[in-house]
Amino acid sequence: MSLDIHTAVQTAIALSIFAIILLIWSGIRSIRKARTLRFFRMRRDRVVRGWRLFFFAFIIGIVALFLRFYAEPIAYQYFPPSPTITQSPTITLSPTITLSPTITLSPTITPTPSISDTPTITPTPHVPLAIESRFESTITPNPDAVFSRLIFTQGIDENYQPLNPAETFQNPVGHLYALFSYDGMTNGAQWTAIWYRNGELVHFETKPWDGGTGGFGYTDWEPQPHEWLPGTYEVQLFTGTIWKISGTFTVEGEPPTAVPSPTPTATTTPSRTPTPRPTLTATPTATATRTPYLTPTPVTPTATRTPYPTLTPTITLTKRPSPTPTAVTPTITRVPTFTPTITPTKSPTATPISPTPTITRHPTHTPTIPIPTITPTKLPTFTPTVPTPTFTRLPTATPTTLTPTMTRRPTLTP
Predict the structure, then answer these.
(1) β-pair type (242-252, 168-170)
(2) Nearest of 135, 216, 146 to residue 177 by alpha carbon
(3) For residue 327, what pLDDT is reported?
(4) Which of 96, 249, 293, 393 is 20 to 30 A from 158 in CA distance terms?
C-alpha cells in the first residue's frame, strides 16, 4: 500500500495524540499509586516517574504541533508532488420533462368570515380635561425626557427595585406599584400618572416633579380590597400634556366582599330634667269695703273721699308632705348561752408489738470476667541495609627449605 506525504503526516499526528493521552494517563496513575506506598524511597520514585511521563507527553505535544504546521511544507521541498491525471467530465444525457395529464380540482365554496381582524387606528393617549385643570406648575417640561418600560409589582426594596414583578395578579391584590427609570426630567414640571380599568378612569395623580433629572421612580395605587375588580388595567405617564409611556397588567379572580361600615345613629341620652318645686304664689283677693252714707247731721256737711276697693295680697300656704312616723317594733335577739358538754376520753390501751423479722440480703458473688485488652504492637519495619564488603586475605605459600638429616644406621653388635 502506498501512502502520500499528507496521509503520513496525519497518521503521525494521530499517533502523537494517542501517545500524549497514554503518557498523561500513566503519569496520573503513577502519582496516585505513590500516595498509597508506605516507604518514602519507593513513593518518591513513583512520583518522579509520574512527572517524567508528564514531561515526555509535553515533548510529544510539541512534536505534534511541529508536524501539524511544518512537516508537509518541508517534505514538499525535498519531494515535490507530481502532477496527476484529472478525469474530465463526460456528457451525461439529462432526462426531459414529459407533460402528464393532471387532475383539475373542482371549485369549492370557501366560507368568508363575516368579521375580519382589520387593524384599527389607536388614538394617542391624552390627559383628560378634568385632570388638566388641576395642573399647578408653570414650568415647561423637557420634551426629550425618556421613561423606561413599566414594571408592575406588589412590593419594592429600598433601592426602588421590584420584589415580585408580574403582569397578572390574583385577588386580593392590595398595594400595587408601577416602577420605571427616567432621564432628562425637569424639577418643578408637571407630571401625571393615570390608571384605567377596561378604558375607565379609576385613579390618577398629578403634581410638580421633584425627583431630579434621572433615576428610579414609581406610581402606586392602594384602593379598598373590593375595588380591585377583574379586568385589564393600563397605566399612562405624562410630562405636562405629552404622553411618554404606557403599561398594562391583568387582575384575575373576584375581589373580597366589601364590609359594610357602621352608620352612626342618633341615640337619646337621658338627662336630668329640673322638677319645679312648689313656690309661694301671691294670689290677689278682692275685699269688699262698705261705702259710708251721708248722715244728716246738724254739722255742716263735709266732702269725704270714698276709698276704692284695694287688692290685698293673701299668702296661701301649701303644706309639704311630712314624714309619717312609723312605730318600730323592737325584736328580741337571744344571747347564746354556754352549755358545758362532758366528752368521755378513752384511755390508751397497751398494744402488744410483735417483732417483725427483717430479711437481710447476703452479698452475692458476681463473677467478673476479665476482658483482655489488646495492645497494638508495632510491626517491625524493614530497613534495607547495604552490606559492607570485607576483604579477607588469602593464605600465601611460603617456600620452606628441607634440611636433610643424617640418620645413623643401627649396627649389629654380636
Answers:
(1) parallel
(2) 216
(3) 47
(4) 249
pLDDT tens per residue across span 152-205: 999 998 888 898 899 999 998 989 999 999 999 999 999 999 999 999 999 999
Q: Do residues 150 and 237 share a domain?
A: yes
What pLDDT score was predicted for residue 124? 86
The region that residue 289 occupies, defined by phi over 0 for left and psi between -120 and 50 for alpha, beta otherwise, is beta
Query: CATH number, domain at 230?
Result: 2.60.40.1930
Collapsing DSSP to helix, strand or coil, 226 comes out as: helix
* Boundary (domain end) residue, out of 252, 286, 304: 252
In a domain? residue 87: no
Asked whether the predicted pLDDT for residue 226 surpasses 70, the reply is yes
pLDDT exceeds 80 at position 414: no
- The pLDDT, as a whole number, for residue 205 is 94
Please report how the helices 40-66 and 5-35 are oriented relative to each other, as an axis angle in degrees rounded to 10.
160
Do the domain assignments include residue 144?
yes
pLDDT-wise least confident of 21-30, 347-356, 372-381: 347-356
Q: Could you give the residue ranges of the DSSP H alpha helices within 36-123?
A: 40-66, 72-78
Same-domain status, 72 and 170: no
Cell numbers for 35 = 500516595
The candidate with the shortest Cα–Cα distance to 139, out of 210, 208, 192, 214, is 208
Asked whether residue 134 falls in the same domain as residue 69, the answer is: no
Planar angle of CA 330, 334, 339, nearest 5 degrees: 170
Please calculate the CA angle 65-69-72 and round it to the nearest 5 degrees. Answer: 120
Q: What is the reported pLDDT for 49?
A: 94
Instruction: Determine the pLDDT at residue 405.
Output: 60
Answer yes or no: are the C-beta atoms of 47 and 27 closer than 8 Å: no
- Would you state the pLDDT for residue 266? 52
User: What total number of domains does the chain contain?
Assistant: 2
Residue 122 falls inside a structural domain = no
**Cα–Cα distance measured from residue 236 to residue 194, given in angstroms and rounded to the nearest whole number:** 5
Q: Kindly state the helix (H) or strand (E) to which residue 29 belongs, with its residue range.
A: helix 5-35
Nearest to 137 by CA among 212, 190, 205: 190
What is the span of the domain harbouring residue 22? 5-78
Is residue 83 assigned to a domain? no
139: cell is 414650568
pLDDT top residue among 265 and 134: 134
Among 47, 48, 45, CA closest to 32? 47
pLDDT tens-digit map of 115-127? 445 545 557 899 9
Contact between 150 and 216 (Cβ < 8 Å)? no
